[in-house]
Amino acid sequence: MIPDPAPEAAASPAEGPLPRHLLPDTATIDGGRLAIGGVDVLDLCAEVGTPAFVYDEAHLRARCREAVAAWGEGATYASKAFWCRAMARLVAEEGLGVDVSTGGELHVALAGGVPPDRLVLHGNNKSEAELDAALRVGVGRIVVDSFDELDRLERLVPRTAGGPRPAVWLRVTPGVEAHTHEYVRTGQEDSKFGFGLASGAAAAAVDRVRSPRSPVELVGLHVHIGSQIFALASFARALEVLAAFAVPLDLPELGVGGGLGVGYVDGEPTPSMTEWAATVRAAVRAAGWPEGVRIAAEPGRAVVAAAAVTCYRVGTIKQLPGIRTYVSVDGGMSDNPRPVLYGSGYETFLPRAADAPRPRRVTVVGKHCESGDVIVRDGQLPGDVAVGDVLATPVTGAYGHSMASTYNKVPRPPVVFVAGGDARTVVRRETFDDLLALDA
């Protein structure tokens, strides 16, 4: 157990209890103990073990419905944020389309019952096999990203002829740099994605796709400027820049991508999907797009991030006087690589004392053989945190499970959906034998 810190005149806001808005919608606290979806989190961890991703199913459904209310039939879930068959079924039930960017994501979507015509295929380097699979099942839209991809489509489409020409969007990079981490910016000219506007590549792509010999039908343009964007004006600026090129084309559809930011720590803003949609629609009207243009958007993080907490077990507490206190848990960069990749910040708390002050400054680290294996660099916990405690990080529903690895041969955690007092494991925990399953 870590000794209590020295008394202070007043606790800073960071030392207070975890802000409730960072917890999933159905979270309740009774006697300090956290429950989600009517399921006691400590009891759940005793049953399924740690680490574990715990998702509030009601929260997921509520955000899906918010997306549909904001974007109508253009609401399209970005599967890269979090994807498994159970999520595919849920998204399909709630009436969203799905953005997939690899053959694997496409395979899971179909296995989960997503109608093919509700799928949008993305990707900057789609293989011939991926394109062939998409054409054969009849995905709704293919977002063309390069001239090489057009070459592949021209070879493939005649093999699957017999129906209408496949509908495509062209992805355009407008030269707008969103205020976010450089690794998740995608709208600037120096990007691996899309056809550049300033270079003339976008115009050349339009000419090629609209030629009489083209085997595909151009129905829209797509623009995506990055991820974790809080400044809604960035979306408006991208549409303003794109308009001079796009409006004269008189296309019936416009894909505005995703990237809406989500607050991970106290004090970060979280624009709603409703606000985002209103900003985009106002920008589209102001730029002169036709009144009836169909707008599609691809929220991912905004749907799933705050729906989950990740639960760990504390195994070691190492206090370095005058330097820092390390709290080591049984997961780490293999289940949440975002802090290592992007320097992302998270809060941390104890589910046994979810409403307690958190006066102790700690660094929460994982069990991997890397000094950079940090989950929360500057976290706050109750002073009595002890070896054996369950420790949780909130807002981990996006890009945790989906980016997880088996580094150091640590099996990946399970995914558990909770709702109405019941818990169901939708992705089981990997075993040591699973680690050998692909070995020759």
From TrEMBL:
The modification N6-(pyridoxal phosphate)lysine is found at residue 80. Pyridoxal 5'-phosphate binds at residues 259, 298-301, 399. The keyword ATP-binding does not apply. Pfam families: Orn_Arg_deC_N (PF02784), Orn_DAP_Arg_deC (PF00278). Keywords: Amino-acid biosynthesis, Decarboxylase, Lyase, Lysine biosynthesis, Pyridoxal phosphate. Its cofactor is pyridoxal 5'-phosphate. It catalyses: meso-2,6-diaminopimelate + H(+) = L-lysine + CO2. Residues 7-19 have a biased composition (Low complexity). Residues 59-305 form the Orn/DAP/Arg decarboxylase 2 N-terminal domain. It is an enzyme of class 4 (lyase). One of its GO terms (molecular function) is diaminopimelate decarboxylase activity. Residues 1-20 are annotated as: Disordered. The keyword Heme does not apply. HAMAP family: LysA. Belongs to the Orn/Lys/Arg decarboxylase class-II family. LysA subfamily. Homodimer. This is Diaminopimelate decarboxylase. It comes from Acidiferrimicrobium australe. The lineage of its organism: Bacteria, Bacillati, Actinomycetota, Acidimicrobiia, Acidimicrobiales.
